[in-house]
Amino acid sequence: MQAGEETTKQPRRAFLAGGIKAIAALFGLGLGVPLALFSFSPARQKDRPEEWIPIADFASLNDHRPTKVTYAYTRQDGWMKTETRRMAFILKKDDGGITVLSNRCTHLGCGVDWDATANQFKCPCHGGIFDLEGKILEGPPPKSLARFTAKVEDGRVFIREGQA
Amino acid sequence: MSKIWLFIDRRLNLSPLLREMADHRIPDHANPLKKASAFMYCFGGISFLILLLQLLTGMFLMLYYVPSPDHAYASVSYIKNEVAFGALTQNLHRVGASAAVVMVFLHMLRVYFTKSYKNPRELNWIAGVLLLLVVLGFGFTGYLLPWDQKAYWATTVGVNIIETVPWLGGFIADMLRGGDEVGALTLTRFFVIHVMFLPALLLCLLAAHFFMVRRQGISHPL
What we know:
The complex is a heterodimer. Chain A is α+β, with helices and mostly antiparallel strands.
């Protein structure tokens, strides 16, 4: 490249070329960094409002088998507030505590269901099988069913949106 | 980096083209280093720089903006309040719009007072006037998009002004609004005009404008 040869011979020209590059870099970074962060922003926001969502009355829970509950809550979806319905399984523990399992299969996100005769959670899509505690027994799912952070207060069961 | 460039250049022989584009003499009367008042010859370039900035920030704003009456206002306030650097990006675009109009107008004044529009550059003057109209069109259509009270009533008034054009006014106004009232159809129309039709027109006109100025050279004052 001829221009390259000239810049090595002529220091002033090289200085000016360097200056132009520096200014271009300044503009590029000054715009590029904020715009990149602008684009990634929602994906990076992990600090969702930590609200307790009521999902069931404690008294209505089954003994020794999971209770399937459907609950609705207002979800902040970007600039939109949407009324979302979700399902979960609540399991009473012997010590009086509870375990709340997500019904989303960890394989590809289908809804698992409780098979009372087999005493297992079964996924209708690809045959994933989980035990009463949500632990993976068989099939393609890579890990156990997700557990929600849950608490019982005033006879009601609450969970947090983020899964524990 | 230079290896990649060499690889491409050996095959496509681009450097003569680049040299032709980048290496051109700036006449002394247009060189701010030679004559301070020549800074006026930078107005066109500054206008172009601002338009590039508008293109860039506009592209990024479209990541979040939704042109629907239900969601436009909410999505803009989401950009301004929730998204990182959202207020900066939105304000760059908003202030940049005003700056673009100001710089284009100053550029036009410079061309006018140096009589640069005269023979043989009449065609480039016409391209420039069309570019001014496109920039004003950007401003007019963009103003509606935040869908707040100011946007709504500014557009209502603006289109009503267009309606007073003899003979054709009613037709043009209805076409712009997509009906006889500013509403959902107006918003999507203005949005698409703002982000598709006008940018296409702008780029074509800019290409013509730049081609002509390079072909004919920078004018000497008469």
